[in-house]
Amino acid sequence: MSADHTITTKNRTEEIAETTQKLLHDYFERSGSASLINRLAPDVLWFSEEESGGKEEAARYLTAWKEGFFNSYVESESYEAKNLGEGCSLCIANLALLVHPGKTFTLHQTRKLTFIFRRLRDKNTDESTWEIIHLAVATLAPKTAPGKLPEISCSLDNLRYLNRFTTGDLSLDETRSLYALLQEKVFRHFTQEKKDMLTALSLFDVFTLSQAKYMYPSGDTTAMMREEEESGLFLYLVKGTTGSYRFFPVMRQFLAAEFSARDPKWQSRCYLKAARWHYAAGNYLEAMQAADKGDDYDMALNILAGGSDSILFSGRRTYRRSLVKRCPRNVVKRHIHTICLMVYDLYYSGMKDEFRTQYARLREIDAGVSERAAVHFLGTMTNFNNLDPMITGAKEALDTIRRYNLWKEFKTPHLGFCCPTLLLLYHSTPGQLLTEVEKLAELQSTLERIGRHEYGSAWSHLFHAEYYLLTGDWEKGLGELSALEASPGYANPSVKIRSAYLRGWLAFVTGRASSIREIETEMHGYLASTAEYQTLIASLSECGFHLMFGTDSNIKKEYKRILDPQRFYFPSHTYIEIMKDRILLRDGKDTDLLAEAETHETHARQRKSVIGMIFALLNQAAAYKRLGEEENSLQALEEALTLAGPDHLILPFILFSDELKDLWKKVRAPRHSASIVETMSQYTRPTSPEIPSLEEMRRDQIKKLTGREMEIIHLAVQGLKNKEIAEEQKVAEITIKKAMSTIYRKLNISGRPELLTIFGEEKHEEE
After folding, report:
1. What CA–CA distance (Å, rounded) separates 24 from 40?
2. Domain map of the chain by residue range?
3. DSSP E strands: which ranges in 238-374?
4. Fold of the domain built from segment(s) 694-766
5. 227, 200, 226, 225: which is closest to 215 by C-alpha?
6. pLDDT of 76-90, one tens digit each?
7. Where does the signal sequence lie (predicted)?
8. 3-state class of 125 per DSSP?
9. Per-residue confidence at 325, pLDDT binned at 50, 70, 90?
10. Angle between helices 86-98 and 127-139 (to 10 degrees)
């Protein structure tokens, strides 16, 4: 290369970038691809600070290169880029592809450019850089030779993390332009068999050769998949797996658009095939979604019946709400028990008008004993927080089931709605808390008998432990939890998670410092529960454990996603609102806290949650006090005492002991609240260690691991199985199994799902 063309360091990076972008824009306009470069060029930093030079040098260099550098640089046998910085090499490599629209590249030239990209990969990991690399090569790939694509997959082996395509922020015109480019230069040259296969596979996030053969059995699927893997244009092999593929995101969007333009009957067949595949694999959420889109009502409802815990109670709504409305009358009659679950879902998702419409429709259907009993049971269980009619309806359903032997047909809902605390939901009348505890235990026992999942006295112990926690009789609460842990029902994960939650609270209020870290670690371990609704219980439990008495500085970062009301039925919203108010209280956003707490008090009254109202009033009292409005603060505190006094609900006041400590001698307490005021005026919170943040926990856990164990974990997180890790490490499989057991023991976890939870999150944060 001539020394005249060497870029020197004179001016700032912005100047050279501006000149480069202008030149690229001019070249692209001539090649008819202006819209693509207009989108991508402004996001690419071509030169590092050390390599930046003035406008004149850059313009002279690039202009000279345009006239004759391509042949000497790209077609030469040397793979060295003398006198060029990394950024300049990247610029040249892209220009070599993009400013020669009339040139057909040889395979050698394409491999040379691929080598350049691969050589630059480690130093140029900026997402925008990788985006333009892949699109530059892939969208112009057919220029290599008729019917052939360049071998670029070897340069894209880590695109899962580096090649983040532009998804969701393209304008409609830009999207149309990009899709037209792909259609014109690539897709229209494919055979119909390959088009069918690729568009059908766009229904999957990850897929294998077996899935491809299942979705498209009539063609030479193996050969077509091999061709696409070698080309690297549409799909790539997921690193660390033995045959799992993904589409590049922008390519999957393009294929999805092609899929939606196909014949509706063909689309329906593909959806139903995907539904069967997902159902066989136990992916009920995806199966339900695919069957719904395929408009096969019987299949969709059969899937729902088999996976109701995952589909309904997980908080994720993957099927269309209109599915119930769209079901023909004969289908509704045939699947009335499953339809009842969906109508139940409408009620607890807050869609009361739609619920009433569909419930009335069910009542009009001329059905048998089993169907009538199911509809009646639905009516009683959608009478939230009215325990007496709920108990009566459950007992009537149980009698009908016994009389007509209908055990297999009934499914019972979960009373807790993924909420860690049930008394927060069901305490509706001041002075009646203990009576409500007994009724709740009776209702739970009846539902267990209907579902044939009897847990003995486990739930009763749990409800009473929470009662004693709320009312300040903490030794009795610990006794109830001890009895619970000795009962057979303790094996139920929902019981076990809530037990850990209550033990954490009792450890806090009794100052049992040695127990807090251990309990918090145990709760974090439950996040790997197999059932998704149980994972949600664990998430909310851990959230409350930190927010109410922890000192985690990353609370908002950790729990913003968890505290999303859209993921939960409306009874759990009271708990979520308490957590959100706690964040505002800790952040000192008093004006916002006051407004939110007043709104949340209204919500709690609508749900008839006495404890929810108490928390909302105490948050108002704390906000008023900080804002200097002591009289309003005292009034809110007195209202909270009026609600709490009849049952001696002291726990909420303990949590606000620091914020309200100056008010106890001034408050005009109702007579039945005198004991709470007396206790709080003398209360001193027991000292306890700070609750470790999740990041601190992970750092402590990782310090226990050796370098070799970290290598094994890295491979496991990539998706490799024990046998594959053994092959990679060149050891026996039994050695890896023993190493994994040691890792689990050091991290105090039960298996690979928890390992992926911990280290998967670490990787995500690094990105």
Report:
1. 11
2. 3-157, 321-409, 414-568, 588-684, 694-766
3. 244-247
4. Arc Repressor Mutant, subunit A (1.10.10)
5. 200
6. 433 333 333 444 444
7. none
8. coil
9. confident
10. 30
